Structure prediction request, 425 residues.
Amino acid sequence: MDGHMTNREGALSLGLSERQLIRLKKKYQAEGAKGISHQNRGKKPKHALSDEVKERAAALYTAKYLGSNSCHFAELLKEHEDLHLSSSSVRRVLLDKGLKQAKQRRRNKTHQPRQRRAQAGMLWQIDATPFAWLEERAPAFALHAAIDDATGIVVGAVFRPHECREGYSLVMQQGINHYGLPLGLYSDRHTIFRSPNEKLSVEQELAGEIQPLSSFGKAMCELNIEHIKAVTPQAKGRIERLWLTLQDRLVIELRLMGIQTLDAANKALPKLIQKHNKQFSVAPRSSESAYVQLQKHIELNYVFTLREHRKLGAGNTLSYRGVTYTLAEPSSQRFDAKSTVEVRETLTGEIVMWHQGQAVLLKKTEKRDRKEQTKKASSAQPRKPAKEHPWKTTYSTSSTKRNTKKTSFQEVAYSQHNHFVEAIW
Prediction:
């Protein structure tokens, strides 16, 4: 305005065009500094949230949805309260009311992200996490789940009191029955998945011995599923990231549903997992599925079992956990005594003998009480010889009496001998 620089120089310093600079000069000459300021300064936008909506959102957050993140809170308001707000608007309202603090993001360590598998069913990741899913309403328990690496779909989930083999088995049965057999499974190195004696020595490897497996590992081998055991949690980052999402969302959902017990949480879990899959699943790079259809003759109840070997005794009996079992029904197959057989215990507690890919039903045998079988030996009655017994005859020194007694002794001995011979015949 004072002529110390040209319009071209002023436009370059302001980052504007010459024509825009000339227009601003004219407004400044006509209206002053107020002319070049934004015309909406100090005015409330027409699309701004009203104070009533802000107060209502803040009250609902403290009363019902406390602890939910901004995105989840906006979804809950839309689903349950018919209040349509964006996640950014919800975040601003909570920050203004002091109900939420702005979190400073930490700089994560840089690492090469692993690309998702191309087809659904190529790889599942499985894990469990203990958490206070029902907050103070019940003790903490563990959620077992498996996620498909290509699509991010949670194929199975179940709550159990603790991390256990039964929980992982139920998750696998859910996923296989609904989708099919995956090609691979990614897990950690828990003893549920691997045997403590899994590493073979050089002598055992040269001898051709098979690598020892846990009961869960034997089930994976029977279903031809490649079992990969991760060394670090970052290797199975898909399932680890799932826990952050579920711990943030499921707690609020279970609270809104009024869930009080573990059994009730298991009944409500399928609906919540379906809602999660609908929102967070992605399309795989390849439309072809890698799932393998489960053969009809395979019963998963007899696959995910405890497995131990026993030796058959006489009468096709075997002992398992202090109980003696025998065949429940007569079998046409012949089992030799002292032959080694495999005993399987299902998740429901059923005990069967596995032979040539089929389950042979067993039943408990009744044992007689040893106290009833053993009887104490009674004392023997004293034996008295007969009056005619030679030992009871008196001894005489005279020759006549001696010959007489000798003759009578011979007669008695001879008669006893005859009775003995007649008894034998």
Notes: The longest strand covers residues 124-131. The chain has 13 helices and eleven strands.
